[in-house]
Amino acid sequence: MRTPKVSLIGAGPGDPDLLTLKAVRALAEADVVLVDDLVNREILSHAPQARVVEVGKRGGCKSTPQHFINHMMIALAQRGKHVARLKGGDPFLFGRGGEEMLALRAAGIEVDIIPGITSGTAVPASIGIPVTHREYTHGVTFVTGHTRNDMSPNWRALVDSGTTLVIYMGLKHLPEIVSSLLDAGLAKDTPAAVIQQGTLPQQQQVVTHVANLPLAVKQYGIVSPALIVVGEVAGLAHLNQLAVHQRIAA
Question: Each residue of 147-189: pLDDT tens digit?
Fold first, then answer.
């Protein structure tokens, strides 16, 4: 029997061409692939011999319990299967990859971590937004708008940091997030963007001032999955997106 092994693989932001070569090789060797809901199904073509198990997880929706996923990975690996756990973006950035790694290690399972391109940088880049730029900001902060216990981030500390804010899983609570940012002292005319289905052909986005963001999202029918970007760098979006900005801001 082979040594028990699980590969925690980042599938990237959506575009299958952004998958890493190491991920492609691991998928080709896999006996079983446990795949998340947001993973582009074209990526599964790299695992033609593997059994595919859907363990969809999407913020705010009914999903496979994490303890069940952990148990399944351990059980399959202990039977000698090479398991690929395929997760959107990067498994260690709001992907619960750390939880899964610890569960596997506790069971004595070898874990291979294969990072993926995170949507936090790739999706803004798809419309020309660099999340860092030395003339606009000294850093970037990744934060989730959806937490297990519904606790809110310290928005005042985030505003005071002066960094670009990239907010995952925040669309459902966008009005509350914007209100909290403004209450914390963020200028109403700070550029901001919401990008839906980033890097995919069906991608849509709005770019406007942060105070206008909830109205703009409603006006243009933006839905999840979507990423929120707040900061001066959002004003660097492509010119065609700035046209959207001007229409909304007017």
Answer: 666 678 999 999 999 999 999 999 999 999 999 999 999 999 9
* The pLDDT of residue 147: 62
- The pTM of the full predicted model, rounded to 2 decimals, is 0.89
CATH label of the domain that carries residue 162: 3.30.950.10
Are 70 and 184 within one domain?
no
Among the candidates 65, 94, 114, a domain finishes at 114
Can you tell me the distance from the alpha carbon of 87 to that of 8, in angstroms, rounded to the nearest whole number? 8
Is residue 102 within 8 Å of 132, Cβ to Cβ? no
Number of structural domains found in the chain? 2
Per-chain mean pLDDT for the chain: 91
Q: Is the peptide bond before 13 cis (omega within 30 degrees of 0)?
A: no
**What CATH number should be reported for the domain holding residue 84?**
3.40.1010.10
Please give the span between the terminal C-alpha atoms of the chain, in angstroms, as a whole number. 67
For residue 58, the model assigns a pLDDT of 55
Residues designated catalytic:
36, 57, 169
Residue that is last in its domain, among 81, 114, 147: 114
Burial class (CB in 10 A: 0-12, 13-18, 19+), 196: buried
pLDDT band at 64 (very low <50, low <70, confident <90, very high): confident
